[in-house]
Prior knowledge:
Elements: E1 7-8, E2 24-25, H1 26-32, E3 40-42, E4 48-50, H2 55-69, H3 86-99, E5 110-114, H4 121-130, E6 133-138, H5 141-153, E7 160-164, E8 182-187, H6 195-208, H7 224-227, H8 232-246, E9 251-258, H9 262-274, E10 278-286, E11 289-297
Parallel strand pairs: 5-6, 5-8, 6-7, 8-9
Antiparallel strand pairs: 1-2, 3-4, 9-11, 10-11
Helix pairs in contact: 1-2, 3-4, 8-9
Amino acid sequence: MFLKNLKIKTNTNFHPKNKHKSGYDLEALCQVLPDLEAFVFENKYQKKTIDFANPVAVKLLNRALLFTHYNIDFWDFPDKNLCPPVPGRVDYIHHIADLLKKHNTNKNTKVLDIGTGASCIYPLLGHAEYQWTFVATDIDKSSLKQAQNIIDKNQLSDMISLRFQDNKSQILNGILNTEDSFLVSICNPPFYKSEAEALEATTKKLKAIDKKENGIVRNFSGTHNELWYDGGEKAFLHNYLYESSLYKDQCVWFTTLVSKKDLVKGMYVSLKKLGATDIKTIHMGQGNKISRIVAWTFVED
Length: 301
């Protein structure tokens, strides 16, 4: 190895328990996953880093993080599928753990992951950090097949089970049954209403990281099922809010990421009309991006 004292700095706004709040140790990551070393280079500030506009480099970095910090032995799926950034995803997990503290949570905590994708990232991280068990759903059979492969090869079939949502217009309907009982649901919704909107966002992202390409490459990849929804993020969220009111006795807390802060006010209005007894907004700072979790419950305190 020729990498010494190499660390990609991240911001300090991550959750205090986030293992990546101080940056990435590239030397250690390359020792665990040697394929990553080919993508390490020196930028214009004479700092060692990777090309975050390169989907292959991004996938290898996140795989190395999982191998190094989360006891994962296998993590692979088609390049067309969304590659989630581990530091941001585990931040969601840590904030949810804080939300659940008053419930005296332990390894018996059962979580519903809506839209797990081919990467199965939230169940992997939630189990690694807190020993939670998961039911994970998706509308794409091929994504579920890839997720099941990851589960099997990491011997986590007792901890994570998958369910297929065969109606793309529904979220909880057709998934939950009368016997189900969850402490919390988590969701990373599709943020865009069309492919054109998703590509526009990618263009802005590439400019932000000072990367010019002849053709647009979505550095975290992603299929249409993962990135856009008829009506966009707002339509998805309000569908989720309504359906949650139909299953209010089967899940203590419902939660979701919300990318557009302008949507939060409308969510509060709708949730109050639906009878939510408590609503919280949890802010997350991730690099130059500010994100948020909205959590709600229909259970009396």
